[in-house]
Amino acid sequence: EPHQTHNMIFIGTKPIMSYVTATLTQLASLSLVTVVARGKRITQAIDVSQMIVKRMSEVGYEISDVRISSDSLVSKDGKKRSVSKIEIDLKNSSGN
Fold first, then answer.
1. Could you identify which of 11, 22, 70, 89 might form a hypothetical disulfide with 37, taking C-beta atoms 3.0 to 4.6 angstroms apart as the criterion?
2. How far is CA 90 from the centre of its chain?
3. pTM of the entire structure?
């Protein structure tokens, strides 16, 4: 089964509001969207999900699940590093 990424928002270096907008755009047509971040970007993922849940709660968006894990990566100097990862599932509970 191919890895599906159409309902995942990967947090990177763009301004936070661009991820909020992208997530809301996905939630308009999908019932579940996952916000994913690693390392230093975890705080931005939490900020994005909280902005959506707090400001759009009357629309019916809520956090349905949060998963934390760590990925093993090889850094530029060739050393193996463990990088924290968070996945936050946001769902539209209004049932559209």
1. 11
2. 8
3. 0.86
